[in-house]
Write a structure and sequence with these properties.
The chain starts with a strand and ends with a strand. It has about 230 residues and is mainly β. Strands 3-4-10-9-8 form a five-stranded mixed β-barrel. Strands 5-6 form a two-stranded antiparallel sheet. It contains four helices and 14 strands. It is globular. The longest helix is centred in the middle third of the chain and has 9 residues, at about 95-100. Helix content is about 15%, strand content about 40%. A hairpin with a 2-residue loop joins strand 8 and strand 9 (about 120-140).
């Protein structure tokens, strides 16, 4: 599960955009940026994530309700009852159209995970000095609004001490892969299938145990940990 994501850049531009050759989007991610995002629990369709998509051949930044199972009611988006802020079982017909046709990228500098230890829910904040990419699936409604889910895979060895049920799908900061990822295709590219089957940790992450993700007040009983990239 990925239940919190954050994008903060202070006064600096998002370096990953240039690395991905997404120069057209630099204005959309201009400084300063502070995005603190939570899933749309409680039916709050205003809880969204900023994602990058390829629409009609052009890169575009849109805000999507962080809950894939939504439906349109006039000019509003209504959050459905199915828990879908993460996309896990991608073999399910529920995800197949989006997996082939509506893949997006979420830029982030931090994310939150949790783990039940005994009777205590422990929360962990992962941060990176540079923006990293997460894979998302999205859908677009006739009124021009969007909903989305972050893709997760099976647990990763480095994440298991902090969350042992799932692992967010990190994407490489490579322009060639990014274009393949964003481009709809009836047959999913081998590079994508390889990453889905064997997900990797691309960024270097600092791990802190926190009381809440919002304030990130650290617990000094936990020694900070560095998770190094798999690449």
């Amino acid at each position: 599960m990925c239940g919190y994501v954050e994008l903060e850049n202070g006064e600096k531009p998002i370096e990953g955009l240039k690395q991905l050759n997404f120069d057209d989007l630099i204005g959309d991610f201009s400084a300063p940026i502070t995005e603190k995002c939570y899933p749309a629990f409680g039916g709050d369709a205003q809880r969204n994530i900023p994602i990058i998509i390829l629409e009609q051949g052009r890169l575009k930044k849109v805000y999507a309700t962080w809950w894939f199972d939504c439906y349109q009611d006039g000019e509003q988006i209504i959050v459905g009852s199915r828990t879908t802020f993460n996309a896990r079982n991608l073999a399910s017909p529920f995800w197949q159209h989006a997996l082939h046709n509506q893949r997006g990228i979420l830029l982030a500098t931090g994310l939150g995970e949790s783990k039940i230890v005994g009777k205590t829910k422990q929360q962990f904040y992962f941060s990176s000095a540079r923006a990293f990419c997460l894979g998302v699936l999205y859908k677009k409604f006739a009124n021009g609004q969007y909903s989305a889910a972050i893709i997760t895979r099976d647990a990763h060895l480095k994440f298991e001490p902090y969350h042992d049920k799932a692992f967010p799908l990190f994407l490489p900061l490579q322009p060639e892969f990014a274009r393949v990822w964003l481009t709809p295709k009836q047959t999913i590219d081998k590079q994508i299938n390889q990453l889905l089957a064997h997900p990797l940790l691309y960024p270097e992450l600092q791990v802190q145990r926190v009381k809440t993700f919002k304030n990130k007040e650290t617990l000094h009983s936990f020694n900070p940990v560095t998770l190094h990239s798999d690449t």
